[in-house]
Structures are given as structure tokens and as C-alpha cells.
Specification:
2 domains; alpha/beta; Rossmann fold; about 15% strand
Length: about 230
Amino acid sequence: MNLNFLKGILHLFYPELCIACGESLVTGETYICLDCSLNLPKTGFHKLKNNPAEQVFWGRFPMQRVSSYLYFEKAAGVQHILHHIKYQGGKELAKRVGRWYGDDLKEIDDYRSIDYIIPVPLHKSKLISRGYNQSEWFALGLSESMKVPIQTNNLIRIAKSETQTRKTRYRRWENVSEIFAVQHPELLKNKHILLVDDVVTTGATLEACAQKLLGLNCGIKISIATIAFAS
């Protein structure tokens, strides 16, 4: 029996649903329907210096550029997309979103000087329980589009942090300020690093990563890219 016919029968009884809106996907659509993909609330921050994402980090550490692909809007399905990526095994979707955003970033001069992409690391225990690092898969998509190598074993998380929910900005910073380490600083000398995470809220975790890298005092420059902006 034809494989496509079998797939059609399965789809009839068990249709795949759009992660963003919950409607059935049609042939050729995966993860997100065409309507939702065309209407994602894109920020356009990569085109704008001093954009709202960059303003989150003003006065906290020297940076080159900061950008986020999407606004965090529940009505637009971004919340569902992030939840799928982070908690429901959606690593391939994270990679696809990374490729989409990488196509945008590589058109901007400031992002063409990136030497390495480094995702915010998870603690080993969380990585084991979740099975993957959603920021790493987003970074893999960026790497494919931008043709920039990714480092996943240099910046590491050496201690677990408590949940950031309901913490003030200062408490969030205090919670993560000493939990990262760099294993091979010599590889980063005079490099422009793109730090990658899933979402910007207060920016405490990204700031802690940036401060650890900049504290090496070896000519590192930092830019940031995330899937969503929720500050």
C-alpha cells in the first residue's frame, strides 16, 4: 500500500495540529500553519539599534547588539510555540525558528562579524531530565543559516539555580551571578560572541553569562539573540 496513502488515512483520523493556533495542518505544513507563520509578531529588532531588547541591558555590561525574533504575545500563539519548544520536545521547531531568524540576522552588517554562537547552558541535571537544551537547538538553526560555528561545551553551568518565577530583577541576578564558568578561555580571545537564549525577560541569566565571558579580559565582544522578547 502506498506510504503517502497511509499517511493520508492517519492524518484523517489523527490530524496534526498547528502548535500556535491548534487548527489542523494541511499537506506541506509542519509544526505551524501557513497563516500563523505569516502572522508571527516579529520584532524587527535586528534592524534597529537601541531597540527595546538592547535597552534591557543598558548600563549592565558593554554589548554590541541585542535582538529578539518575536514579541511574546499569548494571542499570537508565541506562548504555545515557546512552551512546545521548552517542555514538549520541540527541539526541531527551535531549530527551524533559528534558521528563520538566522536568515534575517545574516543580512545585517553587525551580525556578519560573529565568530561563535554560544547558547545559554543548562545544568547537567536539567539537561538529563529534559533531554535537550532548547537554546542550543535554536542556536543550531542560527548556525546553519548564518554559517557561524557553535560552541556548546565551553561556557558551562556549574551550579543549579532556583526558579526565576516571582523574583525581582535583583534577586534574579543574585540567583545566577555565580553559576557559570568558561573551560577554554583561549578559544575566545578577541572573538565576537553571539549569546543565545529562548526568551528575554529581565535578562539576568544572559547578563550573568556575558559578565563571565567579559570577565576573561581577552578582547571578547558580546551580542545577544533570543526567540522572544517578554520584558
